[in-house]
């Protein structure tokens, strides 16, 4: 509505100035008319292309989206189960019983509740007869979940008892028997949720789109499915996501009761879910100091038991090579003490304790026993008088054991360097990021001073853009002269441009929300408004520069230069504004490395696209303006060769700025270089994280982020001296 009057005002103003100066209007009318006609050609060309376009691809239904998501989730957690060695040497036989009656709903109430649901069939044969029927072990967790009438289950256990691993086994079992179009079980670590700031649905939608960027695709308004917004929102609203809410205890104590209330209020009564927590923390969340007791509506519960001593002993011996081997014989005194209640027995009664102990004391292939500590030291009660002392010892010895030198598993990082880096990362998560377990590479810049990264990004962008522009404009004067001019002008302009850019970036980042990485780009016809706006703005820019140049070198050539610059700026801005985000397929798992590669690709493509677009736009504008305004005919190859340096000088800085805005890779790179220079992280930071996850077992991967193997390991490292 306002673009047309603005365009008319600019044309009338320029015509008045041009005619008042005493010049003939013939050439001017020709140029302005051609430019106006070009604006009209663009929507006409769009309509012609639309008429000749093939039929659009069918929009997938929500059930088809759920099927694709199920494949991606299954691929992700099968790979993670292999990395965590959940089946090596064999799955630990975790057992459980029904949770205490005061922590869950009564069984009779659950059956009555389901009976009151509209359209609910009579009692299902798969339902347990009573709460005692929820007892089980190992792979029976799927059967136990199906035995809950409401489909709501609370998994409780002591620290390290295996709650998260049990949820992973349940997730994989549900996916194994999932019918096409059925709900998709998705694991949601609750530690990153702030119930006071974000409702549960919005938070789950954000987690889904972060780990599966394909779910960012908007749902068309004319589709048969009623759910608006993105595909992630559609899946949640149609109950095609079965949330496995992991580790309520990792939320701050002050908000756990509010989190339970939010779950009760947001999720409908017929929405199945699973919630895990430590026992003591869950009990305190149900009975806050102020307020009434709040139970999870319609939920049954199970409580994980300590490991059976005989099975724990068999696990340690089997991991050491089996009974009869020298490595297994080292465990004889320790396994004999299991079940006696001494500190070592208590520490080794959980899957976490067994994992730490086998990593520290069991040899890898071709390792010599004499080089390893002996497990009998765990029985020294003078040195370890309590279980807490044993746990502290195991956490302290775990990192050196995971990084000990081995000929079959060479590493670029010594145990000391790995310990120093992991301690820094744990302190970064615990103190800088308020205790979140999510180690996201795009949040690494927060480890530096508040505005340091913003200033560095602004200066870097300004220097690179100024250097490219200086070299481009200096090239026509010869290679040596052009390089000298470009270097000096580029550094000068870069500093002049970078300082205000840095100040603006620092001001914006002080109040802006967290920036997320890009998933890729493509050009879309949806950018047609940007194209029209860019051309109109370019014309205004061209008129202003035409007046300025006309005063200096003559009106005709000044007008030609102004129109050339304006048309080029409009074409470049319009094309670059049409670039849109691309969303990958749902059936592919997205890891931190893949997210980084896509975001880096976005930055590179935006920068290069800006440079190439600048060259092509200037060449096309030169051909059009010279032919229409001055009557000169120049071939497009000649114009491309002539405008190559200047086009790069215009386009590269423009593309670089858009790349900085639409990706976070440059910020991460600067933070990584800065922290590496300070000795906080290795130069190959992402390789270090991947090695810590895939080969050392120190980190685990949850979608697009890493986490420490256990939150207590993170807290232990965060409490160490830096």
Automatic annotation (TrEMBL):
Residues 151-278 form the NACHT domain. It comes from the Bacteria. InterPro entries: NACHT_NTPase, P-loop_NTPase. Keywords: Membrane, Transmembrane, Transmembrane helix. Gene3D superfamilies: P-loop containing nucleotide triphosphate hydrolases. The chain crosses the membrane at residues 32-49, 453-475, 487-509, 530-551, 557-579, 608-632, 652-678. The keyword Cell inner membrane does not apply. This is NACHT domain-containing protein. It comes from Streptomyces diastatochromogenes. The lineage of its organism: Bacteria, Bacillati, Actinomycetota, Actinomycetes, Kitasatosporales.
């Amino acid at each position: 509505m306002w673009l047309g009057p603005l365009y008319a005002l600019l044309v009338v103003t320029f015509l008045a100035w041009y005619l008042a100066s005493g010049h003939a209007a013939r050439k001017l009318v020709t140029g302005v008319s051609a430019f106006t006609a070009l604006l009209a050609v663009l929507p006409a060309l769009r309509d012609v292309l639309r008429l000749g376009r093939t039929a659009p691809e069918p929009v997938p239904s929500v059930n088809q989206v759920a099927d694709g998501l199920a494949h991606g989730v299954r691929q992700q957690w099968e790979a993670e189960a292999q990395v965590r060695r959940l089946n090596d040497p064999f799955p630990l036989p975790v057992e459980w019983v029904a949770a205490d009656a005061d922590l869950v709903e009564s069984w009779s109430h659950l059956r009555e509740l389901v009976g009151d649901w509209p359209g609910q069939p009579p009692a299902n044969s798969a339902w347990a007869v009573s709460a005692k029927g929820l007892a089980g072990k190992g792979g029976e967790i799927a059967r136990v979940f199906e035995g809950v009438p409401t489909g709501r289950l609370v998994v409780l256990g002591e620290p390290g008892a295996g709650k998260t691993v049990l949820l992973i086994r349940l997730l994989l079992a549900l996916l194994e028997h999932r019918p096409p179009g059925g709900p998709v079980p998705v694991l949601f670590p609750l530690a990153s949720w702030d119930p006071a700031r974000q409702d549960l649905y919005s938070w789950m939608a954000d987690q889904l789109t972060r780990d599966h960027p394909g779910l960012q695709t908007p749902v068309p308004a004319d589709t048969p499915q009623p759910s608006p917004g993105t595909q992630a929102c559609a899946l949640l609203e149609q109950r095609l996501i079965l949330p496995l809410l992991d580790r309520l205890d990792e939320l701050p104590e002050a908000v756990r009761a509010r989190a339970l209330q939010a779950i009760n209020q947001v999720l409908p009564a017929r929405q199945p879910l699973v919630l895990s927590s430590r026992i003591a923390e869950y009990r305190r969340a149900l009975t806050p100091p102020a307020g009434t007791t709040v139970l999870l509506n319609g939920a049954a519960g199970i409580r994980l038991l300590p490991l059976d001593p005989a099975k724990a002993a068999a696990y340690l011996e089997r991991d050491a090579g089996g009974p009869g081997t020298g490595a297994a014989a080292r465990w004889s005194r320790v396994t004999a003490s299991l079940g006696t209640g001494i500190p070592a027995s208590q520490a080794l009664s959980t899957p976490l304790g067994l994992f730490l102990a086998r990593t520290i004391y069991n040899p890898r292939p071709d390792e010599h026993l004499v080089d390893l500590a002996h497990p009998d030291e765990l029985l020294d009660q003078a040195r370890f008088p309590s279980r807490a002392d044993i746990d502290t010892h195991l956490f302290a010895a775990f990192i050196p054991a995971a990084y000990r030198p081995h000929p079959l598993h060479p590493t670029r990082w010594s145990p000391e360097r790995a310990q120093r880096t992991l301690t820094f990362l744990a302190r970064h998560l615990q103190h800088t990021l308020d205790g979140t377990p999510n180690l996201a590479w795009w949040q690494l810049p927060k480890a530096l001073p508040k505005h340091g990264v913003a200033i560095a990004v602004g200066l870097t962008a300004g220097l690179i853009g100024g250097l490219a522009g200086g070299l481009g404009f200096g090239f026509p004067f010869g290679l040596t002269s052009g390089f000298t001019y470009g270097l000096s002008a580029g550094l000068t302009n870069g500093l002049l441009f970078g300082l205000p850019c840095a100040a603006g970036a620092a001001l914006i980042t002080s109040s802006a929300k967290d920036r997320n990485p890009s998933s890729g780009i493509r050009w879309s016809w949806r950018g047609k408004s940007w194209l029209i706006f860019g051309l109109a703005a370019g014309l205004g820019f061209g008129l202003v520069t035409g007046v300025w140049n006309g005063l200096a070198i003559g009106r005709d050539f000044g007008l030609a230069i102004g129109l050339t610059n304006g048309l080029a700026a409009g074409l470049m801005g319009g094309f670059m504004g049409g670039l849109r985000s691309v969303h990958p397929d749902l059936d592919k798992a997205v890891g931190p490395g893949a997210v980084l590669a896509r975001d880096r690709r976005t930055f590179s493509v935006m920068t290069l696209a800006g440079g190439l677009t600048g060259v092509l736009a200037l060449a096309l504008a030169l051909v059009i303006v010279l032919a229409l305004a001055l009557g000169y005919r120049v071939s497009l190859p000649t114009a491309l060769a002539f405008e190559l340096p200047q086009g790069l000088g215009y386009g590269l800085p423009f593309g670089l700025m858009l790349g900085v805005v639409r990706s976070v890779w440059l910020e991460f790179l600067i933070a990584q270089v800065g922290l590496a220079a300070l000795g906080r992280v290795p130069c190959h930071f992402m390789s270090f994280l991947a090695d810590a996850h895939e080969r050392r077992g120190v980190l685990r991967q949850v979608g697009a982020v890493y986490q420490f193997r256990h939150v207590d390991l993170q807290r232990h490292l965060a409490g160490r001296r830096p």
